Amino acid sequence: METVVLEAVTPETVSALAELAHEIWFEYWPSLIGADQTSYMVDRFQSLPAIERDMRDHAYEYWFVRAVDDGRIVGYTGGHVEPETNRFFISKIYLLASERGKHFASAVVSFYERLCRERGLSAMYLTVNKGNDLGVRAYRGNGFSVIDAVETDIGQGFIMDDYIMEKRVK
User: Fold this and answer.
1) Could you tell me if residue 154 is inside a domain?
2) For the sheet containing 158-168, what is the strand order?
3) Beta strand pairing status for 123-129 and 145-155?
4) pLDDT tens, 133-158?
C-alpha cells in the first residue's frame, strides 16, 4: 500500500517548499552540524533563491511528500538527472521531525526507483552526512551502498563530510 503521494512543485508553490525546508533544517541539523553551518547551508542550498536557481539552471525537480491518509505534507524531496552518468542525483529527502520513522523515506526511494526505470536510468545516488546515523541506516535499509566518502569545502570555513551512496536500478 502506498504511504505517500509526491506532488510536483509548481512556480506558485516554490516559496512554500522553501519555508518547509527552513522548518525542517532548523529542527534537525543544528544538533549535527551547528547553528552557523545550518544557517549557511539553508541560505546557500535550501532558500527560495537557491531552489529557484537549481530549478532554472540545473534542471532540478522538486516534490512535496504528502501522506496518503490525510494529505498532510510530511516533507519534500528533489534532485536531477545526470545524463553523463545515466543516474538520478537525489539531492534532498527531508521529513518533518514528527514524520520520521514512519516509512515515508522508503516510499520516496520507491518513487525514485520507478522514476529511474521510466527514464531509463541505471542508478540513483545521494550524499549523506557521515554523522547522520538515521539517514545512513534508512538508505542502507533501502538498498543503497556506500561507494565513496568525500569532504567538500562549501565556503565560509564549512565542510560537508559525506558518504556517497548509490542504488542500482534494474
Assistant:
1) no
2) 4-8, 61-67, 73-82, 87-95, 123-129, 158-168, 145-155
3) unpaired
4) 989 999 999 999 999 999 999 999 99
The contacts found for 151-155 with CB under 8 angstroms, 24 or more apart, are: 154/40, 154/41, 154/44, 155/40, 155/44
pLDDT beneath 70: ranges in the chain: 1-2
| Residue 10: CATH number of its domain | 3.40.630.30
Does a structural domain hold residue 153? no
In a domain, 57, yes or no: yes
Please give the tally of structural domains in the chain: 1
Using CB atoms within 10 Å of the CB of residue 109, give its burial: 0 to 12 exposed, 13 to 18 middle, 19+ buried.
Answer: buried
Is the separation of the CB atoms in 142 and 106 below 8 Å? yes
How far apart (Å, rounded) are the C-alpha atoms in residues 38 and 43?
Answer: 9
Residue 76 lies in a domain: yes
Query: pTM of the prediction?
Result: 0.92
- Rg of the chain in Å (alpha carbons): 15
